[in-house]
Amino acid sequence: MAIGMANDPFGTLQEFKLASGTTGKLHSLPALAKTLKLRLERLPVSLRIVLESLVRNCDGNKITEAHVRQLAGWQPNAPRSAEIPFIVARILLQDFTGVPLLCDLAAMRSAAARLGNAARVEPLVPVDLVIDHSIQVDYYNASNALDLNMKMEFQRNAERYRFLKWGMQAFATFKVVPPGIGIVHQVNLEYLSRGVHERSGLYYPDTLVGTDSHTTMINGLGVVGWGVGGIEAEAGMLGQPVYFLTPDVVGVHLKGRLREGATATDLVLNVTELLRNAKVVGQFVEFFGEGAASLAVPDRATIGNMAPEYGATMGFFPIDEATVDYLRITGRSEKQIDAFAAYYRAQNMFGMPVPGQCDYSRVLELDLQRIQPSVAGPSRPQDRIELPALKSRFAELFGERPTRYPVKPGPASAELAGGGDQSAKNLPNGSAKNVVEMVDNRPTPNLVRDSGENVMERAADLGNGDVLIAAITSCTNTSNPGVLLAAGLLARNAVQKGLAVRPHIKTSLAPGSRVVTEYLRKAGLLSCLEKLGFGLVGYGCTTCIGNSGPLDPQLEETLGRNGVIAAAVLSGNRNFEARIHASIKANFLMSPPLVVAFAIAGRIGIDMSREPLGRGTAGSPVFLKDVWPSEEEIAEVMHYATDPAMYRTLYADFTRDHPLWNAIPATGGQLYPWHKSSYIAEPPFFAGFGMQPADMGAIRDARALAIFGDSVTTDHISPAGSIEPASPAGKYLQENGVAVRDFNSYGSRRGNHEVMLRGTFANVRIKNLMVPGTEGGMTLFKGEKLPIYDAAMRYRAEGCPTIVFAGEEYGSGSSRDWAAKGTQLLGVKAVVAKSFERIHRSNLVGMGVLPCQLKGSDSVQSLGIKGDETFDVLGIESVIKAQQDVALILRKEGSRREIPVRLRIDTPVEVDYYRHGGILPYVLRQLMAD
């Protein structure tokens, strides 16, 4: 019998009619409302979808009638202490988080085999993994850049891909979308999401959690889903509910319509600024009103995507006719579309709510008519700057520094002309032929070509604010045809007026699916982008995740020698310190057409409302308004992006014409044959595993490993980008025979805990306040300055626990498991912070690390913590209760202070996770005991 058919304690199982004339079954929320005598139509739509899951899965064990009644009786401003056990329809992974998750599953199965029953470890929920984070921009501005980048990707990651193919055959419900198809969020939006699922005649909503924080892009399609850590996703895969605290739901009333010239990107930067200031961390956000209804699904998805940037669990848009239209446009079958629309109408959840229709914890308003072109930066997505103010804001942040520094003349590297870490002479024929020369109102580098058509740079100079990376990168915007077509049209208009991009600017187009290049090609705009250097470099998460690849060595040397503040412009969602490129300190988020415009201008310090982008034909100045596409121009080409047959064709077969993937051999067997590898290693989390958990006990005589300030991100804690040769991780790889050129990235090596342990707190921009004036993961050990890893290992050898201190928003950013896993493996027993971001707090608990929150006005500074104290954490020795107060004891030179801190173990099930040493041991003990 199908799930949800066996138990029906509230009498909600009913039939509903589809447009085809057939019938299906569902668990009716209107019927539940009658039974409970509640006006459930007043609940936010997102909560009603969660409520349906509770009703359908109510088995009296994991989900009880009390859980259903508690959520059904949700009040907008009630105290939040109850947890919700949410069973999702599916799990979504990307490869950077999916590989370590599969390592954990394989290790869990190995541990289960040692206990006598490996078959107990099997995913019970469908799992899709999209390989999208491993592509790097080694080659660019070359007609064969995609082919070359993918060959480099497979050369670097063949072992990881063999491991994933093992997982496909080892676990029945584990499916993989190969590299070169698209980014996980756009593939999810355009293909994977069904809207509703059907099993043995029972229909239920598509819901999910994903191991990428931007899983929330699917909220634009009316799907409830959000990002979680891989350790939490593993529990969900193995049949555990996803537990979360009953949320507040913030309603955002969108009024009016976007004006001419404003894009969905401009809108989402305003939303991010508004909601980050409104402090919506850990809350659901639900958009409604006539403005929300006016937005197409790709615009809604753009806003949903950046929910992690404004701190919300979700940025949800209810289902309406626009949602149905999107399913049809993207090639879903009429049967799927019929079931989707009929289901939500039967549940009384179809249509965009109007003001006053639903009850929210609070309501914020945003008038779309007032949205202005904007960018965000230089290091946080919420720091919005209106376009005309950017020049003065940049000068305010970095000072007026008119000096320009010459770049040493010499052969342009392969990177400058499009060729990775080889010399230009080793480039394939033709790859250096389409470098575009820039003619604008500034000095232009003199370019010559040798007899082999290799680009040589005779003279160039760099100054503060010069753009060195310009990337139309996937994730936030490349699922949105409106802004992609606008970028193509701006490129067309610019080329027609004689504008170009200077050759030392690293330009790239990395869309979120093959659909994008197909409609740009059909519209005649792909060639225009290519003429400005925005040629296709890959389908996946490139510059936004730090896979921007190296810059030309001559540029790097000039930047480092002279302290030049160079800039990157990108259409992604993240611009944290050292994320985009370690040498570029000013990173700005913006719409794809603005990325093209700033690449043409070549500098951030420009007021585009007054100053020309450059000089075109016959030396005439060309302004942004001269090339910006009108709404009519965009409308004329939009039909190229709304062809259902195109979507069906491109998503029909992932292995056809994919020799690189098809050539990867697959290892068979139920258990993975662990062997010595610098990429895949059996994680230590189940070493010595037994059925009884060890006593966690109090934390005594701990020392401070690091003290951080505000807004420390998971990128700071566990970087995804390049590995420095002199870092602990770089030294480890070299000691194990890996050449520097083969390091790959931290993200690609997440399957090896030895690398990731050494990479924890290794971001080149992280600042430990225990070592003032120092960047890059250093600390003090008994007065000696050491890398954090080395100090942690000395503390571990002494049996001394450690604590990390931090300020506001600790752990913001990506849902990065290794930020918590690495913390645990370093021997950190507790993190004491002013506040935590949602996913990282959960991950710390999931790894058995205690998150403690300072209370009231207390801070590291007000308490005078310097890092030379000894610390105890008391009150966790016996019974732990969710969100209880515990005592932080500070001892120094005979003095003793007791500071009350709030235990951020938020729910009863998290208490169990912590008591078992983490979520994975807890789940394995559950599986083996069943």
Question: What profile does the largest beta sheet have?
Answer: 7 strands, mixed, barrel
The CATH homologous superfamily of one domain: Aconitase, domain 3
CATH topology of one domain: the name is Aconitase, domain 3
Structural class label: alpha/beta
Mean pLDDT score: 91
Low-confidence parts: 412-456
The CATH first-level class of one domain comes to Alpha Beta
Relative helix content: 25-40%
Strand order of the largest sheet: 28-31-32-33-36-35-34
From the spread of the alpha carbons, the general shape counts as globular
Instruction: Name the CATH architecture of one domain.
Output: 2-Layer Sandwich
Rounded to the nearest angstrom, the distance between the terminal CA atoms is 21 Å
Q: How many helical stretches?
A: 33
Describe the structure.
This protein has 930 residues and is α/β, with parallel strands linked by helices. Among the domains are: 383-421 and 433-447 and 460-649, Aconitase, domain 3 (2-Layer Sandwich), CATH 3.30.499; 691-718 and 760-929, Alpha-Beta Barrel (Aconitase, domain 4), CATH 3.20.19.10. Helix content is 32%, strand content 18%. The chain is built from 33 helices and 36 strands. Strands 28-31-32-33-36-35-34 form a seven-stranded mixed barrel. The two termini are 21 Å apart. The model is unreliable at 412-456 (pLDDT under 50).
